Amino acid sequence: MATRTPFVAGNWKMNGNRSLVEQFSNALNSESFNGVEVVVCPPVGYLSMFAAQTFRLGAQDVSHLDNGAHTGDVSTDMLSELGAEYVIVGHSERREDHNESDLNVAAKARKTLNAGLTPIICVGESLSVREAGDVNEFVGKQLGALVGEFSPAELAKCVIAYEPIWAIGTGKTASPEQAQDVHQFIRGYLRDVDAEMADKLRILYGGSVKADNAAELFAQPDIDGGLIGGASLKTEDFIAICQAAI
Ligand code: 13P
Q1: What CATH number is given to the structural domain containing 147?
Q2: 163 Cβ inside 6 Å of ligand 1
Q3: Helices and strands, number each (H, E), in the chain
Q4: If you measure from the C-alpha of residue 10 to the centroid of ligand 1, how many angstroms do you get, rounded to a whole number?
Q5: Which of 37, 93, 100, 163 is catalytic?
Q6: What residue's CA is closest to ligand 1, atom 2?
Q7: Max CA separation in the chain (angstroms)
Q8: Distance (Å, whole) CA 93 – CA 97
Q9: Catalytic one among 91, 93, 100, 125?
Q10: Atom of ligand 1 at shortest range from CA of 210
Q11: Residue 159 belongs to what domain range?
Q12: 8 Å CB contact between 162 and 116
């Protein structure tokens, strides 16, 4: 079985300001994360204000188009220049607020990968899907769009984030067993495509991860780290979560 580097990414969403950027640059750069890949994803305008040394930077979205007449959009070229190495694509908030379909998400992930950046591709079900017992079918369909777009060698370079929508910002974390069940399903689905890729690919859990529940989530065999929302806005909490992934 491949050893996967643990990975923790903080998604600030539409939060933060200059002073938080300074606070994070100072606090994170004085920590060592012992092999954990740590990524901060602020709003795009703040990317270039970070002094990232012990951590890396990511964006929260990207256009699937090249530079040109696309008002309001931001390209992979621009994100690279601003210092981003990762891009979150297909977050449920973007799927909801901007009607992004599985195909849009695959196109954004394609653009990201082609630009030499790493896509962090989000999947996950709503409460009604879970209550109807359709989690695997729903997540399987989201994965199907990725399998249709990428070769196994390309998929191995991506990161998947399982974020059940009912657990995002609600304080209702999936239990370690609930999260592991879906992570195991995701890895199994991808193993049927290509076993080596499935063993290499990092799968993060996101949804109300906090300093006090991170360790038991990250201890699950198919959970390789976390995508952190609210708790990524406080330096002490985010550092504690990164350390729980060591
Ligand atoms: P919370 O950690 O605030 O639940 O958000 C999770 C998330 O959506 C990260 O992308």
Answers
A1: 3.20.20.70
A2: yes
A3: 11, 8
A4: 8
A5: 163
A6: 229
A7: 47
A8: 6
A9: 91
A10: 2
A11: 7-63+74-244
A12: no
**Nearest residue by C-alpha to atom 1 in ligand 1:** 229
> Would you call 91 a catalytic residue per the annotation?
yes
**What atom of ligand 1 comes closest to residue 232's alpha carbon?**
2
Task: Report which of 143, 106, 104, 98 is spatially closest to residue 124, judged by C-alpha positions.
Answer: 143
- Indicate the top mutation candidate among 227, 234, 238, 241 to test ligand 1's pocket, ranked by most ligand atoms within 8 A of CB: 227
Does residue 26 lie in a domain region? yes
Residue 2 lies in a domain: no
Scan for tokens 């849009």, then name that residue: 104
Averaged pLDDT score across all residues of the chain: 97
Tally of CB atoms within 10 A around 172:
13
pTM, two decimal places: 0.98
Which atom, in ligand 1's list, is nearest to the CA of 209? 2
Residue type, 1: M
| pLDDT of 1 higher than 60 | no
Assess if residue 165 is contained within a domain. yes
Q: Is residue 68 part of a domain?
A: no
DSSP E strand stretches across the chain: 7-11, 37-41, 56-59, 84-89, 118-123, 159-162, 202-206, 225-228
Number of structural domains in the chain: 1
Place of tokens 């799927």: 95
pLDDT score of 198: 98
